[in-house]
Amino acid sequence: MLKRVAKSVPLFAVAALLGWTACNTHRVHADSEKNASGRKLAPEFSLKDADGRTVRLSDYRGKVVVLDFWATWCSPCRTEIPWFTEFERRNKDRGFAVLGVSMDDDGWPVVKPFLKDLKVNYRVMLGDDHTADMYGGIDALPTTFIIDRDGRIAATHVGLAGKEEFEDAIENLLASGGSGAAPASSTSTSPVAPPHGF
User: Fold this and answer.
1) Distance between CA 34 and CA 152 in Å, rounded?
2) Is the pLDDT of residue 182 over 70?
3) Do you find a cis peptide bond into 142, omega within 30 degrees of 0?
4) Ordered structural domains, the chain, with CATH
5) CA distance 93 to 90
6) Do 150 and 181 contact (CB within 8 A), yes or no?
7) Gap between the Cα atoms of 64 and 151, Å rounded
């Protein structure tokens, strides 16, 4: 839906009418890294990747994860994706992974060529409204969650964030390790507060 609206009317009109920004070239919100005790469990999801394989967030428990909601038509997303490709290459052997969730309505026919063009080296899935709702509603793209080794949301970025902000948060989480405490539920699908609630 974001794409259909964004293509049919100017973005400033969409933002004014609906109260959100479909694709934002400026950071609208970026939480600093939350103290471990104040972090909320990232909702579990089950989505298909480009090869048709099922990807679950719980498969990445024990790793620091960058979970990026994006779309091919979003220019700030195009700015951030090469950073994430670099982070994946540099940190994949340190217990780190990037997961991309495309919110493109046209699906794989537009997403796969885009991934090839940008030489994306991490797993990408097609998102849906249910998954977006679980993460508090994705009102702007990109929206990116940084998840600690225990599966909890350590930081949230809505709109275009700075590369150094991501690098600092990732490095802090990789260096700190996990708490060792089991999360309350590894398969929670309950909604979380909107991104500004983190």
Assistant:
1) 10
2) no
3) yes
4) 2-14+21-178 (3.40.30.10)
5) 8
6) yes
7) 8
Residue whose entry in the numeric block shows the structure tokens 């994705």: 138
Q: Average pLDDT of 17-27?
A: 46
Mean pLDDT (whole number) for 176-185: 49
pLDDT tens-digit series, residues 95-111: 999 999 999 999 999 99
- Neighbouring C-alpha atoms within 13 Å toward the C-beta of 154: 27
User: How much is the pLDDT for 37?
Assistant: 72
3-state secondary structure (DSSP) of residue 26: coil
pLDDT per position as a tens digit, 52-79: 999 999 999 999 999 999 999 999 999 9
Is the CA virtual torsion 143, 155, 87, 83 positive or negative?
positive
Q: What's the half-sphere exposure (Cβ side, CA atoms, 13 Å) at 181?
A: 8
Beta strands, E only, 73-131: 96-102, 123-126
Distance of CA 62 to the CA centre of its chain: 17
